[in-house]
Amino acid sequence: MIVRKTTVGVQVGSVQIGGGAPIVVQSMTNTDTADIDSTVQQIHELARAGSELVRVTVNNEASAEAVPHIRDRLAARGCNVPLIGDFHFNGHKLLEKYPACAEALAKYRINPGNVGRGSRRDPQFAQMIEFACRYDKPVRIGVNWGSLDQAVLARLLDENAQLAEPEPLEAVMREAVIASALESAHKAMELGLPQNRIVISCKLSRVQELIAVYQTLSQRCNFALHLGLTEAGMGSKGIVASSAALGVLLQQGIGDTIRVSLTPEPQENDRTQEVIVAQEILQTMGLRSFLPLVTACPGCGRTTSTYFQQLAQDIQTHIRHKMPEWKKRYHGVEDMQVAVMGCVVNGPGESKHSNIGISLPGTGEDPVAPVYEDGVKTVTLKGDRIAEEFQALVEQYIDSHYGRKTPAPPGATG
Predict the structure, then answer these.
(1) What is the mean pLDDT of the chain?
(2) pTM (2 decimals)?
């Protein structure tokens, strides 16, 4: 059993981070925030895919001015996902000049390395915290080793140089990341922001470095922690690196909210893959359930036909497409297990272990496909419409086994 380590919860709009709440999935837009139409569309797509928090860049006056309009447009669509403002360099000025932006955002993200240089750092950081206190907003103290607070790093390097046996540079860098986060968080508390309004993140791009930093961080504090491998990369590299890092930490009970930062393919503006990957990490680890999982065999010489591959893909796509509707209508459907297997070797057994499964005929086998529901064979499919018939059986199983949610009474909210 995985025991979560953070006991302090942070409320971000309607979503709680930490304090025993389920681990939260979040993402970030890559549109120009000042382009209201594009940003609203992307946020809506991310929320529909399952992003429970969405971060937007607030880097200039046009984007700050757009934020409340974005929130209102989303509300008109029935999308109330909390929005996080990502601030660097000039956040103190933007929050002061655009109070509607400060009010519309559910959380502010502050990078201690980019909040101000030299003598301007402390007063500009204090101003950001003052706005968080004024508008009762939580803050993420988000340290990134690509934009590390140079004053903290220089101080620790000087201290390390005085040691009889200095630590390697990598160890000093890790300590600088942690110190920057914790010192900034405690400074925010001195300025009046309570602990239950603070989330910390320490983003690095190397798996082992990230694991080491968060393990140390979790031992030194009880702040809610946001996990993510920064600049994880594109495609399978980004997915594997993020899964490896986050999987280790989550297994140790470290982390209260996660983001999988994937580089989109060229000319690709769909950000939902990172949400899907984050959900699948949590669900395959048994930490949360988001939608029915499809078990499918990899194929071998016994399965020279690609029919079972296409059926597995079609079922998986159908489930993800239908899940927003099913989630409203059926209780517990996200825990369902579906199996699509390619031959008689493991097909019947794996199908019996699922709520509903089909064992398709392998090479040389009889052209029939037995279907199992809760371990019992219920029907054998034949002919050219096996895929359509099995999809219909999945729908029937959901309708008969998960029941319909009781509609909320008029005027109820939730």
Answers:
(1) 94
(2) 0.93
